Amino acid sequence: MHRVLQQPFKTAVLVLVWGWLLLLVLTPNLLVVGASVMTRDPGTFLSLPLNLDSYRQLFDPLYLDVFLNSLYMAAVTTIFCLLIGYPFAWALSGLGKQRQTLLIFLMIVPFWTNSLVRTYALKLLLATNGLINNALMGMGLIDEPLKMLYTEGAVIVGLVYLLLPFMILPLYSVFDDLRQELLMASHDLGAGKLSTFLHVTIPLTLPGVLAGVMLVLLPAMGLFFVADILGGSRNLLVGNVIKNQFLDARDWPFGAAASILLTVAMAVLLLAHRLSQRRLGEEAQT
Amino acid sequence: MKEALLCLKNVSKAFDGKTVLDSLDLDILDGEFITLLGPSGCGKTTLLRLMAGFELPDTGSVTLSGHDITHAAPEHRPLNTVFQNYALFPHMSVYDNVGYGLKMEKRPKDEIRQRVSDVLAMVQLQDFARRKPHQLSGGQQQRVAIARAVVKRPQLLLLDEPLSALDYKLRRTMQVELKRLQRELGITFVFVTHDQEEALSMSDRVVVLKDGEIQQLGTPREIYERPANLFTARFVGETNLFPGYLAAVNDRAITLDILGLRRTLQKPAFTVREGEQVNVLLRPEDIRVLAPEDDHGLAGKVVERNYKGSTLDSVIHLEDGTEVLASEFFDEDDPTFDYRLGEPVRVSWVDGWEWLLPVEPEPVNEEAEGLAADA
Question: Which of A179, A286, B152, B205 registers the highest number of CB atoms within 10 A of its CB?
């Protein structure tokens, strides 16, 4: 009787989920793949014949530069997020449950404001006669305003600001699962603080690090509006290239090829994450 | 063999103002198997953690073979712990788990290999060295945890309820195994448990703890047969507790009124005065259940019977309402031996097997210590 009731419900849910994924995830991606192998057309955007020119164009030194620079910006962002997020998540997991909930809540509150608005807010802080410069000048610490806006630094600040929670949350989850007994066991067996950190804490929190890197590195390459608002109108990120190809240059095949590149990069990272988790085994059957 | 290896002196510990250990003294002898026994919250795990160095005492000192280790970090103490849930490193193989301590000591690779395979052979896991902990059964994980702790040849092995996660049968096997290991290794074992049966069957000495204070310290036999106070008597095994009225007190003997029966007994170690009351303790197996037509004992009827395989446990209601627990072994000559509910019987006990305790509550500790020292 239970099964009879359960089966149709289960089927309905599965159909819904698969239908959703096919319609809204797979189809658009196939369209992008399709677009990437077509030819640019000024009138209809896309036309035949099929070719791989767009992919060849990705290796054009001009764009290669953008990609490498974008990767560099994203990598720096990720490193900062990791440097801030790792100790933060560690400390967070050591607090009482009530304080943990409060801090996570505070971290999530900014999500209720559109990230575009928050990026403009950062612009107000960093601008030549923005809040920070005015404050520093008012205190007499500097004589003339610092150039902060429209630098790569400003873009990285914006990216770190927007993406930090995506690093902290998966890290917090692995630290929360990390059993104190394992650290005690390590000390008990003669390992000092550093050895315990290297041999136990890091390996056991690695899946969280990889998950955080995935959630920060790729979005960082795509957040074109951060580069637009805080970096001036330069092609700093792959996201800017993609946006420009579709909206300004009207080169859809090339824009599509560039976004495929990001998707492939994501797939590689996912695979790495999967492997690292398999290495840890299904563990935790205490 | 009989000198103190680890000495705890006047050790106190409080968490958030709540006293967990109260100026406790304990000497652990070299080579013994000592068990810390008590209900949850009695401070036994905290005591173990103080020895391991995971907690520091608020007052008092801890010395190990004459060296003060009160404030030494866990990694600098020559003792190892077997954790309750084993705490095996999930990302390392059995071999790496066991070898971890030696690697931290920076031992040469060959020596590590030799010692790890020796100790794995000792716990019969030599074929499992390449496995990950999650690929092992509970009993095997337990053995890895023990192997990992003894491979460093500690002076003292601390075991924090190591068998509590295992099922009954496996637990019995591991109890025997642990005793064997202890004999072979000659390491002092400090074993924490809340299982009194386990404590009695494995230990050389048992420390009974309650509310952070030692209730009694003695051999399993002393703890069971001569409990220092009501708590120990009730916590360790089943107990019949009858009120006894002192009818007469002499230099060496006393006359006692127990449920209307008059008995003359040896004078107990605590002070007794005529007219006062004492507690008379009788274990269920001290009780003799007699036929209703017998000429001595107390009349009552069987209200409960429990077949236990090797014994028949029964509850008998005496005429005055007192409940008596009795546990009798089956007799080969009488395989059909059993009781009907409501069957009238008489109850007696073996003369001289009564154990007397002063009436509590109020201060029991002076007497407890007096008795323990006496025993």
Answer: B152
A49 upstream amide cis, omega within 30 of 0: yes
Cα separation of B28 and B69, whole Å? 15
Ordered DSSP codes for B275-287 = T-EEEEEE-GGGE
CA distance B124 to chain A (A): 22
Q: What is the pTM of this model?
A: 0.77
Q: What does the block give as tokens for A157?
A: 């600040």
Percentage of chain A lying above the pLDDT 90 cut:
29
* Contact between B24 and B11 (Cβ < 8 Å): yes
A146-168 confidence digits (pLDDT tens)? 787 788 888 899 999 999 999 99
Pairwise CB contact (< 8 Å): B90 & A283: yes
> Where is A20: in which H helix or E strand?
helix A2-21
**Distance (Å) of CA A160 to CA A80, A91, A154, A219, B171:** 7, 19, 10, 11, 53
What per-residue confidence (pLDDT) applies to B103?
94
CA quadruple A94, A99, A102, A106: dihedral, nearest 10: -50
Running DSSP on this structure, what letter comes out for residue B307?
A: E
What CATH number should be reported for the domain whose range is A60-280? 1.10.3720.10
Q: Is the pLDDT of residue B310 over 70?
A: yes
pLDDT in tens, A239-286: 888 888 888 888 888 888 888 988 888 888 888 878 877 766 544 433
pLDDT of residue A52: 81
Cβ distance A188 to B81 less than 8 Å, yes or no, reads: yes
B74 at interface of A, judged by CB pairs closer than 8 A: yes
Domain coordinates in residue numbering, chain A: 60-280
Which chain A positions have a beta carbon within 8 Å of B74's beta carbon?
184, 187-188
B4-231 folds as Rossmann fold (3.40.50)
> In this structure, are residues B74 and A184 in contact, taking their beta carbons and an 8 Å threshold?
yes
